[in-house]
Structure prediction request, 549 residues.
Amino acid sequence: MGMVERGGVRPLDNGEHIMIKLNGLTVPIGYGKDDVVRKAAALLGVPAGEVKRVEVLRKSLDCRRKPDIKYVLTVGAELSAEAEAAAREKGFAAVGKTETLREIARRAACGKETDVRPVVVGSGPAGLFCALTLAYAGYKPIVLERGDSVEERTRKVRAFASGGALDPESNIQFGEGGAGTFSDGKLATGISDGLIATVLREFADAGAGHEITVDAKPHIGTDRLVSVVAEMRRRITEEGGEVRFNNKFVDFRTENGALSEITVIGPQGTYSIPARVCVLAVGHSARDVFERLDGRVLMTPKPFAVGVRIEHLQRDIDVAQYGFARKELPAADYKLSCRTSDGRGCYTFCMCPGGYVVAASSEEGGVVTNGMSESARDGANANSALLVGVRESDYGAEDALAGVRFQRDIERAAFAVSGGYRGVCQTAGSLLGKGPNRVGAVAPSYPRGVAFADLSECLPPFVISGLKEALPVFGRKIKGFDAPDALLTGTETRSSSPVRILRDENFDSSVKGLMPCGEGAGYAGGITSSAVDGIKAALAAAKKLSAGG
Prediction:
């Protein structure tokens, strides 16, 4: 008898190894297979010997009664024939089968060659999953990526972090894998969709590790994401797709209101591709693309937020969240939110346990921060975006690109304050008027160094007041969150896209065949939701292709 901690479940079409699904099993931190078997047997009301095998399908931490922390499991239990029959009579259901992306794609295949290949612009999670779905369906997509392959991109990101020049086309925002490649690789999502399990399984099979299909808060980590992205590219090309790096979408043409051609700048110059379907999965920082679409495709401003990265010692977060620091537990995370006195939302976002604040600029003359963790999450600091909601009235949304200009102004102001690509840093104590503005117990992890300054020199007054209100509120929720030596490093301006490219139920923009999807288009927020949106865009594209356009 064994316990397998992995995701996915075996097929249920032969009846040989059907597993019964059991929810809500609580076990101690250092649990073993016998603990799980006993809990499963007790829930089913059968002797432990009737449970032949258990498989952990879902695992989450329950920290509500510190320090008595438990794991809560969902498991599949393989039972004796008698115990299985009794379980079904009591209403326990069998574990279902997770459908693979290839299976989903094959159903969308039209079974015939198309005269014009589909084009996918961008190879972030939305673009990768869109292209992979189309490739599995036999449509041989062309993927256009303005930046480098993930291997070359990694070298350029490291060079910039070490003080080198910024490549505006290949950096933390642009290049194969998208902005999420240099993040925590966090896969938890606020959406509810049956495709989430499919996305996790595809990532796991590409090398992310099957634990991501089990953990309630899955993450991959930047160090593993690089090879995962490269493997997904390999699968796209193996199925007949093509990935063109350093090829930038710059224009499109239409006939009778429908897409007919796109224009690309590549290493050999400018060229055109006939296209009836072009999926725009360009990411939230593709400001030049938004500018080219403005006035030709319907777009609208959308809500977003700006702020800083806040850093604490990870051990302090562990103690605050767990009541103690213990190696058996993962590095603790958090998710906080409140309303300020003027009704704005203030919240933490993309929390990176044991991680680093990174240099995420994509335009020359602007400072942008983001957060990153590797798979081990073993860095000294914890960091998270600490953001304040931005209203259209804050930047005068007279057109769809007003939010872009608002973000850019903040980034340029930070560049001026720091005298370059250093982060603008202020301690929480200094911001709250309770301490000096210098390094204390928490050392800044921003790789290009920081300039200690007053954040009000680059962030709008409503953001500063929002941060001042939120810090003590969050300090009451997590002890030490507003500690005087907590570091605030700016500016965090790219948490989400400031525009939405409007689309209909067929994923068409106001130009038929030009199909916006993912975070940049305003329809997702994070790796998993972007991947799900990419799959749905691919299925919509396949429907068009099978119908002849």
About this structure: Confidence is low (pLDDT under 50) at residues 5-15.
